[in-house]
Each structure stands twice: as structure tokens, then as C-alpha cells.
């Protein structure tokens, strides 16, 4: 092979290997994928939009954007937090109502199974029950987990219920365990509102919901306000994480799949199920899942610390001269004794 062809071949091989090495370092084009929006909701990487130039790290992180509203399956997404590893969504409310025509109780129950990266947040949600003669259960798919909440009222009606208080009278709340990715609701038919004494409270409700901003109103018991305020839905929190590997120590062993791409990012073990999320280091802000996503102070300032003003020696000044020893003895200091 002529020398010129050998040189050209060597050059192309060098370029090819350099490109491959760069791809392995950056994690491919996905690492540089820009954040996007659906309506007014920010969709930050590693999430993406189905049908667009989505760069989500895995299919379960792709959202549908319908009429400028993002959806994760059946859940409408209200916002996404990278730092907390959470989604705030709308969850359907289950109802148990007395049908005055058939004179029977009718259930409209809701159940849901989450895809791999997601868990129902045990710290952000509570199973909430509204009603006067209501016992509702929450269970997982295999019934290995079962919990319930009873909401009752005094015999003379809902007068015992108090605005802002969810302690068992008209309203009940209970916590859920960690690592829950399926739940379903059921009502105990032994407790219902078919008794004529409770005609004022025709329906009971149960839902897993965000408890942080929930404020009970007695109107929830005597009307359909709780169910209709958000179209039969209530806000709920989902925890998400990169579920494999199981933790940060395992994740850092595979640089190609490691999701914390920014040099100024850090790995945080998931607090709800296996896996990890990424955060920016202290002093930095941005998206830790992208190259150069965490921005902070200039590099020079980080290396050398804050710039201190230059210290200069003060100029020499002619200080007040000491008087001669003879004047000190006479009790004078640069003047006469009067």
C-alpha cells in the first residue's frame, strides 16, 4: 500500500477511535439532550416527550403530551422535581355512594400499578377517607399489605366534624409503607350511608393523595365538593429513581450507564425502593443528568478561593516626636509650663 494511503487510513482510524471514546465518556447524544416543555410544565432530562426528539434514558421516563398537558400513563403530571426525585400527579378518587333509585350502595373503585422507576411516595402521601359511616381499605396487588381507615360522625349528624381536622370524625388519614408500586381501594359494605339518618352524607370517598397541602372541610362530607374540585382527582406524589443498579456504589462501577453525568453532580441512594438519583453538589444548580448540567461559581474561584484585596504596607508618616528627656522631667510635652 502506498505511503500516502497508509497515512490516510491511519488518520481515519484515529478519528473513528476518538469519536468512539468521546461517545463512551459523554454517554452518547442522550447526555446532551435539552430540557423541554409540555404546556406550562417543564420536562427536564432524563424525562422526555413521546413523539418528539425525546432523549429519555429509558422508555418509562417518556411522557405523553396531550393538549399541552403531560401524562404518565393515566396520571396527569403537575410538576417534576430532579432534586427530590419526585413527580406530582393527579390521582383518581374512589367513591362509595347511595343510589336513591336502586336504594343500594354503588362503588367506583380505582387501582393502579406503576412502571419500574416509580413508587407511591410514603413521605408525601396519605390514604385519605372522607365520609360519616365509612371503612375503606388500601391493599397491594397480592394483599401482602393491607391497611384501612375509619371515618365516622356523631349520631346527630356531622356537627362533630371540624374544619382543618382529619382525625376520624368525617375524615381519616393513614400512612403507607415504602416500596409500594401497586395499590387498590375497596369499601366495607357493612358501613355505608344507606341509613336514613345519614341522608345528608350520600357519598364516601377514598384516595391516596398528597397530604402536605390537604385541608379538610366539613363541606367534603355533606356535598360532592371533594370529588368535583379537580374533576374526581386529587394531587399525589410519586417517587422515581434509576432502579438498576441497586445503589450508588454499584452504579459508579459502570461509567457508561452511570446517570450522574455532570462533573459537579453527586449520587444519592433512593429512599423508597432500590436505585439512586442524581443531585448537583452544594453550590451548584441545574441538571445533574447532563454534561455540564450543574453550574456554579467560576472554576478559578473554586481553585483559589475568594479574591482578597491586596494588602499594602501603609506609608511611613512622621509621627509626633518624643520631647527631650529634660522636658519630660519638667512636666512639659512640647510646650511650656504655665
UniProtKB/TrEMBL annotation:
Ranges for region Disordered:
291-310
Q: What residues does the Wall-associated receptor kinase galacturonan-binding domain cover? A: 33-90
Predominant location category: membrane
Q: How does it sit in the membrane?
A: Single-pass membrane protein
What is the organism of origin for this protein? Oryza sativa subsp. indica (Rice)
Keyword entries, A-Z: Signal
Instruction: Extract the InterPro entries matched here.
Output: WAK_GUB (IPR025287)
Example of a GO MF term: polysaccharide binding
**Is Nucleotide-binding there in the keyword field?**
no
Its name, as the record gives it, is Wall-associated receptor kinase galacturonan-binding domain-containing protein
Top-level taxon of the source organism: Eukaryota
UniProt subcellular location: Membrane
Does Methyltransferase show up as a keyword for this record?
no
Pfam families per the record? Answer: GUB_WAK_bind (PF13947)
Q: Which GO terms describe its cellular component?
A: membrane
Which residues are the signal sequence here?
Answer: 1-31
Amino acid at each position: 500500500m502506498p505511503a500516502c494511503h497508509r497515512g490516510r487510513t491511519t488518520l481515519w482510524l484515529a478519528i473513528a477511535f476518538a469519536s468512539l471514546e468521546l461517545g463512551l465518556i459523554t454517554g452518547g447524544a442522550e447526555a446532551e439532550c435539552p430540557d423541554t416543555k409540555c404546556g406550562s410544565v417543564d420536562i427536564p432530562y432524563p424525562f422526555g416527550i413521546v413523539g418528539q426528539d425525546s432523549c429519555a434514558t429509558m422508555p418509562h421516563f417518556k411522557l405523553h403530551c396531550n393538549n399541552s398537558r403531560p401524562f404518565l400513563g393515566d396520571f396527569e403530571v403537575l410538576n417534576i422535581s430532579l432534586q427530590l426525585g419526585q413527580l406530582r400527579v393527579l390521582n383518581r378518587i374512589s367513591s362509595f355512594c347511595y343510589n336513591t333509585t336502586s336504594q343500594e350502595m354503588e362503588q367506583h373503585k380505582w387501582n393502579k400499578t406503576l412502571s419500574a422507576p416509580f413508587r407511591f411516595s410514603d413521605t408525601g402521601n396519605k390514604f385519605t377517607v372522607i365520609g360519616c359511616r365509612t371503612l375503606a381499605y388500601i391493599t397491594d396487588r397480592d394483599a401482602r399489605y393491607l391497611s384501612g381507615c375509619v371515618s365516622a360522625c356523631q349520631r346527630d349528624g356531622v356537627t362533630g366534624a371540624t374544619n382543618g381536622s382529619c382525625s376520624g370524625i368525617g375524615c381519616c388519614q393513614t400512612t403507607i409503607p415504602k416500596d409500594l408500586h401497586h395499590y387498590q381501594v375497596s369499601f366495607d359494605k357493612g358501613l355505608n350511608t344507606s341509613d336514613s339518618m345519614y341522608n345528608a352524607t350520600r357519598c364516601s370517598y377514598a384516595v391516596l393523595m398528597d397530604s402536605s397541602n390537604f385541608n379538610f372541610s366539613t363541606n367534603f362530607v355533606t356535598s360532592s365538593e371533594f370529588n368535583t374540585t379537580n374533576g374526581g382527582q386529587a394531587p399525589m406524589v410519586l417517587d422515581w429513581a434509576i432502579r438498576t443498579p441497586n445503589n450508588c456504589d454499584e452504579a459508579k462501577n459502570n461509567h457508561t450507564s452511570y446517570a450522574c453525568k455532570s462533573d459537579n453532580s453527586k449520587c444519592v441512594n433512593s429512599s423508597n425502593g432500590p436505585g439512586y438519583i442524581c443531585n448537583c453538589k452544594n453550590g451548584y444548580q441545574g441538571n445533574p443528568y447532563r454534561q455540564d448540567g450543574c453550574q456554579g461559581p467560576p472554576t478559578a474561584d473554586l481553585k483559589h478561593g475568594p479574591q482578597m484585596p491586596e494588602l499594602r504596607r501603609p506609608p511611613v508618616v512622621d509621627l509626633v516626636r518624643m520631647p527631650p528627656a529634660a522636658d519630660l522631667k519638667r512636666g512639659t510635652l512640647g510646650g511650656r509650663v504655665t
